[in-house]
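Help wanted!
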Amino acid sequence: MIEVHNLSKSYNSTQVLNIPSLDIPKGQSFGLVGNNGAGKTTFFSLLLDLIQPTTGNIKNKQVVVNESEDWKPFTSSFIDESFLIGYLTAEEYFYFIGELRGQTKADVDTLLNGFEDFFHGEILQQKKYLRDLSKGNQKKAGIVASFIGNPEVVILDEPFANLDPTTQIRLKQIIKDLAQTKGVTVLVSSHDLIHVTEVCERIVLLDKGEVVRDMMTSEATLQELETYFAR
Amino acid sequence: MFKRFLSLEWKQFSRSSYFQKGLAIKILLILAALYFIVCFGVLGVFSFFLIEDGFPNEDPLEVVNNYLVFWFLIDLGFRFFMQQLPVMNIKPYMIIPIKRETVIHYLLGKTTLSFFNILPLFFFLPFSIVLLAQGYNPFQVICWFFSMVFFTISLNYLNFLLNKNNKVFYAIVAVLGALILLEFYHIYPIAEYAGLFFNEIYNKWYAVSIPLLLMILLYRRNYKFIREGFYLDDAIRKESKEVSSTDLGFLNRFGSIAPFLKNDVKLIIRNARPKQVLMMSFLFLFYGLIFYTQDMYRDMPAFLAFASIFVTGGFLLSFGQLVPSWDSEYYKMLMSQNIPYRKYLESKWYLMVVAVVASFILSTPYLYFGYKIYSMIAAGALFNIGLNSFITLYGGVLNRVPVELNVKAKAFSNTQGFNPTQLLIALPKMAGPMLIFYLPYKFINFEAGILALALSGILGLVFKNFFLNQIEKVYQKGKYKTIAAFDEKK
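Answered by r_m:
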């Protein structure tokens, strides 16, 4: 689904990302781990064509992302709060995203019904603008918005941060379901090694912009990651 | 302690991003401030003599006193829109051992030095000096002067209380409007009664205690207000009112641009900054009064053309120059969504056109100045719709400044969305219509000038698609730059 070729990104001759090659097949739940500054967000930003690659490119379903915009209809993401429109209520935001992705209100409502548990009564009908919600609740809204319109690729940057434990557990289930039953390619980055090993079939470890480990998740993965980061 | 606060304040000021921008902006800001200071000063020095000439039978001080009430009301109005609430980042001070009283006194005290309090001094001080020179009782004049200072500072504190309560504000606006109408149509001589009051303040020196008490009272009210709210949940988090989702379904008839249009309407009505722009653009409607009422400009129709652009173009110019900055807070999201730039732009364009048409309808009273002026406004409106809208949109793209939506622009420190590119773009917006009007006017006649201005607008409309395509290209080209600029910390 996603193919990376000779991708690198430099700012004033400081290289922050260098991935010669990386393939993510359709329906894989893909985890990205690494310390601060490892290049996780840079990689996601390149994938979303928010920054320009210095060399190489990324193909999303055969579309070169920095040359054509045809990847947008089937790709969705939540990177940070700047993906929310602060002066809308959660419902209005969902419908707006729905309209952009060619969904009717009824479609969006149906989808939202499935997330009642996840919202825990704190998102819908709150009579509040998104900017007045707590960080955690903003995140919930943003994550669910990225599921609108049957995307084939979902990109979530640090989805577990700021969420309460109950929601974290529910989110893990949701992500697993997306990849396993709906065939959605899910890309997740996280600082929480336990969550990421539980959710992702495959984990790539970035350090200073380079891929240092690329492994299919097994029982030993968590141990291996912990050993690596404890060094 | 105060000294340390001051040094922190200075660092905040000198290290803030807008201050570190260009030298040109700083100079312009200083020039703007100087301009106002000089205006007020000149007024202060000469108003006595002007009034003496204009109303030979009346005492100039009494005339001034009669109109003071309007002066103060207008002052209050300006403050409401332009003056920032005293904000200090109190979070860090809550957990370190500083008396809350100290922080609050500092916070309130520093607002006394606001430009809004100093500016009136540039009128009252020279005016009082002239009074002294004219042989008025020195003691009474000095008391009167201090009364004015206390009133001004009272307004300062009143404004902070008002700012917390919109209802009070609208009540005041209604009262102000009613007063002006009553006065204007000679139904009830409001100014006279208020004048009596201010005259009494001059006549009885001890009346200076009234404004003094008022000032102290308002200060204490503010103090109490902040003291009670000196907790994180009140002071830092803004109260969030209950809001309901609205659909704005009637906008669906606009088809594919509807989602954007709906969003833009919500953007304007739900955020402080765009609301401010809306209010200001309403004031632009009155811009023509400055030009049309003066004989000096009667013979310089090019300047009248200039004014006509502003009458209908207030919203267009002030809102349009910040497209796409209005969406800077969530621009990354927009860019990763499946969004045709074209629809996005068209939505903004329609908003601007609607605003011009609305302003044009509201400008009907200008018929009073004769059909020539009115036809000029009409031609100006067409120019605004057909050409200015595109020029402004084009300028906006090059104007990559993030805008904080729910923060009011500060007076005289508002450099958000203001840079040399903006000035260059402003040139055709201002000089263009003057030139288009002036040339045919000079070589043929007045009607030809009007016609040329109107035709240029219609021509622009005909080429709408071409213009939008060009702007779209600029968007595409500047995409990464824009994202990076909007991403910068404010």
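OP: Thanks! One thing I noticed: The mean pLDDT of chain B is 81.
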